[in-house]
Write a structure and sequence with these properties.
Helices cover about 25% and strands about 40% of the residues. With about 160 residues, the protein is of the alpha+beta class. Helix 1 (about 10-30) packs antiparallel against helix 2 and helix 2 packs antiparallel against helix 3.
């Protein structure tokens, strides 16, 4: 095959930014209580938290609805802060991995702003039709605080 027929890889900077945006979109959707949006964001992914792995937009949406307490404003009254993001992109194969820390803050009437849980994300991404998508999200909880106002069944 001639070198001029080999497609040029995507711009690595735009790949990193697209993946960072996916990671940030997850936090924003959870904090907004937009579980249908989470299902769409993770539609091509397998999500693994403390329970069995879940796949498919409807199953992922339902998992979040069953797991998180939502308040009168339609949100779980949380802010997910994602830090220490490390992204590795393979432009040739259209795949990427990332790992990051997260801390979830929560505040409610009678509950001052406080961290309630922290841990790590391990993600895989695929580029399909020029768009990056989650292929897998693994959540590992390292530290917990008071989850009684966040999870329907705190562990």
């Amino acid at each position: 095959m001639s070198e001029d027929l080999v497609p040029a890889p995507a711009d690595p900077r735009s790949s990193y930014r697209a993946i960072e945006n996916l990671i940030a979109a997850y936090a924003e959707l959870v904090d907004d209580g937009d579980f249908a949006g989470l299902g769409r964001l993770l539609a091509d992914a397998t999500f693994t938290g403390s329970g069995a792995p879940v796949s498919g937009p409807d199953a992922i949406e339902q998992m979040f609805r069953d797991m998180l307490i939502v308040y009168d404003d339609g949100t779980p009254r949380t802010k997910h802060v994602t830090t220490n993001v490390i992204i590795d992109v393979d432009e040739q194969t259209g795949t990427a991995t990332s790992r990051a820390y997260f801390t979830v803050l929560q505040a409610l009437p009678g509950l001052p702003l406080q961290p309630i849980v922290s841990g790590r994300y391990r993600d895989r991404f695929d580029r399909r039709d020029g768009q990056w998508r989650f292929a897998e999200r693994r959540v590992r909880i390292d530290l917990t605080g008071d989850l009684s106002r966040h999870l329907r069944r705190p562990q």
